[in-house]
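Before the break, one more example. Copy the sequence into your notebook; we will annotate it together after we see the structure.
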Amino acid sequence: MNIHKATALITLLFIAVVSSFAQEPSFFSDSFYSFSSHIPPGAIHINPSDIHYSSYDGQKIDFGIVTYNKWCYIVIKAGSSSGHERYVLSVDNTSLDTVLLFGLTSDGTKQIAYSGGNLVPYDRNRKYVWHTMLLSLDKEDTYYLAAFQDQGKNVNVGYKIMTADNLDKLYVGFDRLIWFYLGTVFLIIIAVLSGWIIFKNIALGYYALYIVSVTSWILAHYGYLYPMLFPGFPVLNGIIKPLSIVCGLLSFCRLLDSLFKRILDNDKISQTILRCITWSAVVMPVTLTIYYFLPGMTLLPALFNVGWHTYFVLSFACILLVLIRLFEKSITVRLFALAMGVMVIMAIQQVLSNAGFFYVALLNDHGMLLTSIAEMLVLTCATFLNIWEDKKHVAVHVVQLEEAHSRTLEQLVTVQDSERKRIAGELHDSIGPMLAAIKINFLRVAKARLRNDASDLLVAKTEEIIDGSMMEIRDMSHQLMPKGLSSEGLVVSLSKYFENLQEAYNIPVQFKHDITTSLHTDVQLNVYRIMCELVLNAVKHSDASQISVSIETPDGAIVSMVEDNGRGFDPLQISDSSLGLKSIRSRVDYLKGAMQIESAAGKGAIIKIMIPEKND
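Here is what the structure looks like once it is written out:
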């Protein structure tokens, strides 16, 4: 299943889930009166019959930022009912510190029916994560009091009155959406972690951490994280949202840095912005410590909430600035910018909706969750696309490096051979004739002037030295540039070279050959160099009494082997510069071959060269 089919399937499932609760339930007719006061619920006196009520249309009631010890109150006047249905008052804001629901008589007597909130341990016997109270409605109007406190935060709260059946249906829709969201997140995390194992890319680890952080915030926003993870520790409710946001920002910054490192290396401003966001998070633990260990400071909760909201907004804006700066650099950056842009639009919608400019129930209740799903789908596609493009880029870069290395080796070998040819020519054409002339002249002088036996012996020894020098120069010249290779072929040239070595060093060299393929001229020259160097090394350094050489061409490839029964060596202790291995390895690499060395102290050595077939 490709990514398009998976996205379509998730979209269809999402539509099915939303449709299960998108039907607008029939709300009970009611009106309300709201106010705030420093008088706590136990001491405040309210006469509900003397209040001027306003019709309630389901929108949020905004009390603004609540200062220290200030309470927010909503007096609800419920209309009469002639039916026998059970009605329930529900407050679905699960972010409030304290929620108290009272029955209220016409003379102001209060009777508490529900207490809850983020500062109260969660009662696992509750049917809903929402704050609910069963109403007692009859033919007369009834009154209820809802009291809220959320220290240092903006209190924006609404309520619903509906039959118990309708509330169950609505809550089931919420439950389905939450579990659909969790299922989607689970599948994405499985895909991301699988990609992490396959591609071994740390960016996928940062992305998985970002998903977990966003999911924690969403679940805390809906009130599901509290009963799931820490029902007995309500103090965690105050820190889970800011910590989730900060962790999400940090992991997102690290994600950007990992995915777009090559681009960011050329943009110091964007690098600095991401680094500042990352390091600014160190103040969060200090702030949280002050917030929870010094609760008596009146303005501290408000300052804390203003601080972390400001940090969130500024960090979010800076990340958008980085994405805008990199917008034209990569299609992945554009997808990231699209995902973050959708989140910005939804955040603005939430702010405007809470401020009363417009109200869309589905978007107001579930906008951030729906946007989070869309964002994760886009970011997942973008992240894997970026990693795939990086893999392709690395593969192309490796091929380019190999080609450059091959060209360098080719140039090196060409230069070496050219220099060998020049030196060979100089030795053969210049120094050789000069030594021959010296010998002739020396013999003439010696015969004319020296007639005694001692002088004859000296002349003989000198003549022997000159002859040895001329032979050495001739051998060096032929070794540097074998003139017979092109006319006589590789086998004949190697045979002559091994015979010369055998005569010079008195070490038998057994040569076996089975060449059934015509070899490229360039290959012949380099194989000749390699074999000569290997055998010469064995002759000079191995103290061997016998050397075996073989060369064959199975299926067009070349397999050659040099074996001696000498003193051997430890291959791990021999550097490439030792025994002429550096030159040999260069030629083997140039021919795209491989070399194997098998040796140990006292057990001789076997060196095997494998060279693939070269096409013209």
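DSSP finds 16 helices and 16 strands in the chain. The longest strand covers residues 30-37. Try to locate both features in your own notes.
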